Amino acid sequence: MNSRERVLKAFKRLPGLPDRVPVQFDLCRQLADHFGKVLGIPVHYTDNLYEDVTYRISANEIRVALGSDVVITGASVSDDYRILKDDKGTWLNEYQMRMRQGDVYVEVLEHPLAQVETKAEIEAYRFPDPDAPGRFRDAEALVKKYKNAYLVIGDIEVTIFSLAQQLVGMEKLLVDMMMETEYVIPLFEACTEFQTRIGLRLIEIGVDAIWVGDDFGTQASLIMSPETFREQLKPLYKKMIDRFKEAKPDIIPILHCDGAVAELLDDIREIGFEVFNPVQPGVPGHLPHDMKNRFGDKFAFWGAIDQQELLPNGSAEELERDIIEKINILGKGGGYMIAPAHIIQHDVSPERVLKFIELCKKHGNYN
User: Fold this and answer.
1) Distance CA 125, CA 106 (A)
2) Longest Cα pair distance anywhere in the chain, in angstroms?
3) What distance in Å separates the CA atoms of residue 13 and residue 348, rounded to the nearest whole number?
4) Using CA atoms, how far apart are residues 81 and 66, in angstroms rounded to an integer?
């Protein structure tokens, strides 16, 4: 059984159980560079329009060599756009957000729509050109190289809500959503159309799945009320997924959504999502038994291993125990791909990364 078949079975697209629970992981630049040097494999980076997504869609050659069962690709910065850093180390990305590298993730210093109030201002804002030169060069190469052996996921994370948040600013957007300010729905619609066009191009190239990414939860609760999600956002996600399925009926829709979002999972399934990621551990409603018992007939799960504390700081015994628990519960009867809940950062040692992969394969067999 190759990696492609293994993931298709885990995602319930082929009958029967995979031979083992498939494995996936993302690496920060420091870890990717380290393993590239150790393995003697050049590391290729695809610079995404939103910087942190870069590490989802880069270093695939390193990840498959280490044991990943999937390849992840996405849109890159246009050949026509140049990222220029100023003397403070900040830059404008293709969305015209002013960015700065933080200790772990990038930070948005200036939101291009921070003063927006009207629909006309949304209509005047220019999104990047989805069809710009070079946008899908890397995606085309990865699909051609890996599609027969690996499941290829097209990543459009920072999709609707999170993209709007980064364009406007979180506090302003949430207040304006509650106030039903004129620009809010047109902004969500514009983000939907932009990312739908990106997703359709990835489908045309030949990806097997589309990975949507927006965070609706905090460590303790939802960011917005369920009613607000259902009124303002749910119809747009449904429209987007319907267009993807119209273009490719067997596309696998995946949602990445951080935080405590169990209260929305029935809605998320109604939208059409079939795989839920990252099953963030340690938040209300996300205990493995609860997830499997309440939603195991609705979703395949992907993730669930804590990368905030367990991977960098937990003992080897704690890591092994957690991996066994997640596989035994979320993987029971199939429907699970094991992975850290987010990108593995440089506070995790290379040795620890290798141990994680080793333990996942050691304990993941169904036979």
Assistant:
1) 23
2) 60
3) 33
4) 33
- CA–CA gap between residue 286 and residue 308 (Å, rounded): 16
Which are the contacts of 117, defined by CB distance < 8 A and separation ≥ 6? 181, 182, 183
Distant-in-sequence, close-in-space partners of 338: CB < 8 Å, separation ≥ 6:
21, 22, 23, 24, 303, 304, 305, 323, 326, 327, 330, 331, 360, 364
Instruction: Supply 60's token pair.
Output: 């695939």
- Boundaries of domain holding 304: 3-363
> 278 preceded by cis ω (within 30°)?
yes
pTM summary value? 0.97
Q: Which of 277, 141, 266 is nearest to 206 (CA)?
A: 141
**Residue 45's Cα: distance from chain center in Å?**
17
Structure tokens at 354: 């290798």
Q: Which segments in the chain show pLDDT lower than 50? A: none
Torsion of CA 195, 155, 171, 221, to 10 degrees: 130
In degrees, rounded to 5, the angle at the alpha carbon of residue 211 between the alpha carbons of residues 213 and 219 is 30
- Over its C-alpha atoms, the chain yields an Rg (Å, rounded) of 20
Question: DSSP strand E in the chain: where?
Answer: 70-74, 91-92, 98-101, 106-110, 151-155, 209-213, 252-256, 275-277, 300-305, 336-340
Q: What per-residue confidence (pLDDT) applies to 104?
A: 76
List Cβ neighbours of 151 (8 Å cut-off, separation of 6 or more). 3, 4, 7, 8, 11, 69, 70, 71, 208, 209
- 8 A C-beta contact, residue 259 and residue 223: yes
Number of compact structural domains in the chain: 1
pLDDT of residue 351: 97
Q: Which two tokens stand for residue 95?
A: 């969305």
Strand segments (E) across 278-325: 300-305
Query: Would you state the pLDDT for residue 367?
Result: 67
d(CA 269, CA 276): 9
Cα-Cα-Cα-Cα torsion 163, 166, 167, 169, nearest 10 degrees, comes to: 130
Token pair 């195991």 in the structure block, residue: 296
Q: What pLDDT shows up at residue 72?
A: 98
- Please report, for the domain that includes residue 271, its CATH number: 3.20.20.210
